[in-house]
Amino acid sequence: MTTALDLYPTRLAKHNAADHPAHIGRRDPVVHARNQHRWNGPLDEVALSHYERDGYLWFEGFFSQESMQPFFQELKDMANEPELLESDQVIADPASGAIRSVFGMHELSEKFSKLTRDPRILGMVRQLLGSEVYIHQSRINDKFGFQGSGFDWHSDFETWHAEDGMPRMRAVSASLMLTDNNEFNGPLMLIPGSHHHFVPCVGETPDANWTSSLKAQKLGVPDQATLAELGKRGGIQAPKGPAGSLLLFECNVLHASNGNMSPWPRSNLFFVYNSVENRLGRPYAANQERPEYLGARHKVEPLDVHDDFPELAGQGVAPLHGSR
Prior knowledge:
By secondary structure, this protein is of the alpha+beta class. It is about 25% helix and about 20% strand. It has one domain (about 15-310): Sandwich (Jelly Rolls). It has 10 helices and 12 strands. The strands form 3 sheets. The chain has a 7-stranded antiparallel sheet with strand order 2-10-7-12-5-4-3. Strand 3 (about 90) and strand 4 form a beta hairpin. The longest helix is centred in the first third of the chain and has 14 residues, at about 65-80.
């Protein structure tokens, strides 16, 4: 099942893969706000240029470490709720059985819901996407000490395009560190500049692929030769910092993370903001839609600002000048 005008074909049958290029040049802008609207937001031209070049922006200490503790505590409390643990929204780590991911966080928790509407984050996201936005997906990815498994290299957009029907590259992820991220506990790694290239992946999508892919992704993983090529061009960066730090990254940038071999937990919160002008259609390379908690189709009203954050006050959005 496909929709018309597929600008980014993927999930190719093996016998057809040789007829397609290893990667396709990006056909969408990176910063969608144009002309005078480009500066209607908290990011200055230097920050916007870094985002266009690298595909991400890093804000160390965006919120205070202390303000993150209630969010992390709420996550730990969820681990003691049997009914929630049996929900499809909770994904167990394939090795340890501990929580790997919890999806739909902004609907499970009012505290997290308000955080999606922080005026500083929302201002940057609207500026980058050039429109009003809604939450396409929210999740926490957890790696408890000594046991958290990693995530293979992938582009989020490849999955959202193939399995959710997201037509264009007009989404951004905001990743908020609920715990310290260091070189030992499996921080997120990115290939700067990789968002300029869409990498078609081989293998047709089986029915209900998400039931296994969220535990260990096998499809939608670029081939090693293309990863090596893009890695040689852009290198690999792994932004690290204290709890409360914020990473904004473009939907098509290639990223991955290693397992957590340290005694320290690594819990990161992800809010995926999609443009209201980029709503989901029929999946481009799957026979069925994924559940609403993985790709919102119905709850797509534009987010309004929630500015009552006394516990998060004190950190402003200064113009960012990149992390490379």
